[in-house]
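protien #1 (seq + structre)
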Amino acid sequence: MEDPAATIQAEERTYCQDTCAPLKAAARAGTLDLLAWGHDLYPGRSFEKHMVPEVRSVGTWNAPRKQDWGMDWHRNTGLEFGYVERGKLGFALETDSWLLHTGTLTLTRPFQRHRLGHPGIEASTYHWLLLDVGATGPQSEWHWPEWLVCSATDLQRFAALMQSHETPVWHGNAEVARCFSRIRAALLLPEPEQVAARLKLHINELVVGVLDLLDQQEHASQALPGAYRTVELFLHHLTGHLEQPWTLNSMAEHCNLGRSQFSHYCLSITNMTPIDHLNHQRLNLARQLLDQYLELSITEISNRCGFNSSQYFANSFKAREGCTPSEYRKRRFGGLSGRVPTL
């Protein structure tokens, strides 16, 4: 949810006011149920300016079927919490993308470029909270709302954990699910003052719950068995060897593990099955090659990325990007030819 009140200059582009029009239109058309509160032009009911001004937007949607819209690339000036209660949802941040499943938590730092949709919104129940932490840039210091009762040490720890982890995708737990459920219940209260008061309470609970979750998952990663670290190292170097004809068996054998054990560790590390993660990385590479090397044919790119056929590559690319590789290149560069400078 991009801050409608903000104009952000980044990467020689200006990200201007956004009204979250696709989400509002879907709610008006009745293709999903929307429950939301916020400030300025965000969807749902509006708070008065003095009421929890740090809560830029908070809400839940229930999409009973796949939607023909998505939230395109945008940046927030605040910290965004997202949680998939049911279904699945496409999510991308910078150059990486995920298909989120039930119980997945996302944490997007201020000014990180991201989008929701694959490219359309899948059938899902999704919660979000966009919280202003006083950030003035990607590396600036955070200033939490005064009504957060966490200790200064805890809040500094939260910000440090967020800055030290590259992944925005986490495995949620029962406490995080309960926090979002309580926030949703608060949004149903009839009076704005009641909503604002309950939100302060439940956002405090959410911040503590998420901090505990981050701590637990960090401590778990520090005490991981050797096999886990072997898989982690293998996946890190996999991006340099995507042209090889990897299978689940060959990847597991490379790590001297059985299929089930390798799959378990891969899912824990990436939130994807091994084959899904392999295809995810191959498609990332394909998009880079399409952007940077116009002299390469689609077949050459398919081979370099390790796809066993150009048709399978085209189908996989279209499933994720919403268009074939040829269409993608045509939309971006038209009739240009030759090497394109690295972006």
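ok now protien #2
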Amino acid sequence: MILRSMWNEPYLETCCRSALHRLCLAGAVGRPAGQRDDPCLLRMEGMGFVRDNGQGRFFVTDEGKARHAREVLKVADGLKPASARHG
């Protein structure tokens, strides 16, 4: 049953996970278009993890933040990262 839920999520290549992480680090400023990770950002936009504001900047969606927490930060749903618990 665990495998079934895993296969229902689109796979993120290592480069896309890195791009998602950089995008999350950019925060409210977003990430400018025209960078080497544009293909990944455009792919993730199609998945609903990223949005383009139409003015040449990418931003992470709530869905993207959740995926980043689960897959990049390895945080279980509903739990805070260890760094947030100790601060």
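The beta strands are 31-32, 50-52, 57-60.
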